[in-house]
């Protein structure tokens, strides 16, 4: 194991956003610690405009450069994403490794990925991030050896040659497609059995895995650290009514989640896109709970999952002694993952929301539209169906989320009862 890298963390932005800048810089500190770096110094610079070549301005960069020598720093981490040109300039001035928040998050994900799919997704995101930033970096990276920002999944060293990277990106994309097809078959099967799908989503460290474990007896790693979970885990959950649902734990979100990573994880996050109900888990004891909710909602929007019914689960109320957080719109429930009664209430609520959420519809479909007929057979519970030579008349029930996902042309023909 490599010795821990000594890091300077740098944030910058306009003075009027001071509070937000400080809080994301604190979060960057936790991320650096998660990656086993030692945060030695924090630098916050107020400036109205980003410097296009240096982000923080040349003078400040020189100051940091001196600090690096004086304090034997191995690594400078910028809280804002660096453009390829900024990275190049900073690297040529500062006598140690330079990375940004995105690369740090990618590095943590690389260390955490366990399944084949997770590893491929992370490596793909890393390579796509690196490709435009490569000029000069190849030799820098070999000079600097390994450590944060240079490791792929499973301590594998990241490729640094442009041609190899392109080839590797194509290869990984293809492998991912293969895995995705395989999973789709699996999901079709589940849908066919019409077990409702419930997905746990939320900011990292909110308690998603803990809730999965507490509710289903799963043994997923739940830890007080950022990004404990990368790979989704699904378990059967039996509700008080006896109804069964499938509950899935997913990767946590964070502010400024690298878009390469969201894109690469799109297929894992399909559990979220395909869900009938989302449990948006919130750490109610966190001082920035509301900013975290917003960050999660942004990621959900980018996944086109904003229309799925969601229950906000305000977790960790056992730690929370202040005023109850301001109620947000939609359904809210306050729980502690360690309270049996709260878990029962949560299960009741899931059952109730899924029940209320069912849509009963009636539709006449021309028999030649075999695609629509088979789609309804897959997604919906059939109540009644009759056919003559030309038309098929179907009465069915399905979740609101699935209804919204039907093709618009079909949806427009449906009469809701
Ligand atoms: N006091 C208290 N602690 C909780 C509660 N729920 C979870 N925790 C703790 O919060 C920490 C994070 O929990 P996880 O379940 O790993 O959180 P997560 O949302 O899965 O986090 P990631 O996988 O990193 O996104 C752990 O130390 C849990 O023990 C709760 O209701 N009360
Ligand atoms: Mg987790």
From TrEMBL:
Q: What is its main location?
A: cytoplasm
Q: Name one GO cellular component term.
A: cytoplasm
Alphabetized, the UniProt keywords read:
Cytoplasm, GTP-binding, Magnesium, Metal-binding, Nucleotide-binding
Cofactor(s) essential for the protein: Mg(2+)
Annotated GTP binding sites: 202-209, 227-231, 249-252, 315-318
Which residues does the record give as Mg(2+) binding sites? 209, 229
Give the location in the cell. Answer: Cytoplasm
**Domain named Hflx-type G: residues:** 196-358
Q: Which SUPFAM superfamilies match?
A: P-loop containing nucleoside triphosphate hydrolases (SSF52540)
Q: Which residues form a coiled coil?
A: none
Query: What GO molecular functions are on record for this protein?
Result: GTP binding; GTPase activity; metal ion binding; ribosome binding
What the protein does comes down to: GTPase that associates with the 50S ribosomal subunit and may have a role during protein synthesis or ribosome biogenesis.
**Entries under PANTHER family matching the protein:** GTP-BINDING PROTEIN 6-RELATED, GTP-BINDING PROTEIN HFLX
- Family membership, please give it: Belongs to the TRAFAC class OBG-HflX-like GTPase superfamily. HflX GTPase family.
Q: Whom does it interact with, and what assembly results?
A: Monomer. Associates with the 50S ribosomal subunit.
Record protein name field: GTPase HflX
Q: Report the source organism.
A: Thermoactinomyces mirandus
Taxonomic lineage is:
Bacteria, Bacillati, Bacillota, Bacilli, Bacillales
Which gene name does the record give?
hflX
């Amino acid at each position: 194991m490599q010795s821990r890298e000594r890091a300077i963390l740098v944030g910058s932005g306009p003075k009027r956003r001071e509070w937000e800048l400080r809080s994301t810089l604190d979060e960057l500190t936790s991320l650096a610690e998660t990656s086993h770096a030692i945060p030695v110094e924090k630098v916050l610079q107020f400036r109205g405009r980003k410097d296009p070549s240096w982000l923080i301005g040349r003078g400040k960069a020189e100051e940091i450069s001196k600090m690096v020598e004086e304090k034997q720093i191995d690594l400078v981490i910028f809280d804002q994403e660096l453009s390829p040109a900024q990275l190049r300039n900073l690297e040529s001035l500062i006598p140690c490794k330079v990375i940004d928040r995105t690369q740090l998050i990618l590095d943590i994900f690389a260390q955490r990925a366990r399944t084949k799919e997770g590893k491929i997704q992370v490596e793909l995101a890393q390579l796509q991030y690196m490709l435009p930033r490569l000029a000069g970096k190849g030799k820098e990276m070999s000079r600097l050896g390994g450590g944060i920002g240079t490791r792929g999944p499973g301590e594998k060293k990241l490729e640094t040659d442009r041609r190899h990277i392109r080839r590797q990106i194509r290869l990984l994309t293809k492998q991912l497609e293969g895995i995705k097809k395989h999973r789709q078959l699996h999901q079709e099967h589940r849908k066919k059995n019409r077990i409702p799908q419930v997905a746990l989503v939320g900011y990292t460290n909110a308690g998603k895995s803990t809730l999965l474990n507490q509710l289903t007896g799963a043994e997923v790693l739940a830890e007080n650290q950022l990004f404990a979970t990368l790979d989704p885990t699904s378990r059967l959950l039996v509700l008080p009514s006896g109804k069964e649902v499938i509950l899935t734990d997913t990767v946590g979100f964070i502010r400024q989640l690298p878009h390469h990573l969201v894109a690469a994880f799109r297929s894992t996050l399909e559990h979220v896109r395909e869900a009938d109900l989302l449990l948006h888990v919130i750490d109610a004891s966190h001082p920035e709970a509301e900013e975290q909710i917003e960050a999660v909602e942004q990621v959900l929007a980018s996944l086109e999952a904003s229309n799925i019914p969601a229950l906000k689960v305000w977790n960790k109320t056992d730690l929370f002694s202040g005023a109850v957080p301001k109620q947000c719109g939609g359904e809210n429930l306050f729980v502690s993952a360690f309270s049996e009664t709260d878990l029962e209430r949560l299960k009741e609520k899931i059952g109730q929301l899924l029940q209320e959420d069912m849509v009963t519809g009636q539709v006449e479909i021309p028999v030649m539209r075999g695609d629509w007929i088979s789609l309804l057979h897959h997604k919906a519970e059939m109540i009644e169906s009759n056919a003559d030579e030309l038309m098929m008349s179907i009465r069915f029930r399905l979740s609101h989320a699935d209804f919204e996902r039907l093709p618009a042309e079909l949806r427009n023909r449906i009469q809701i009862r």
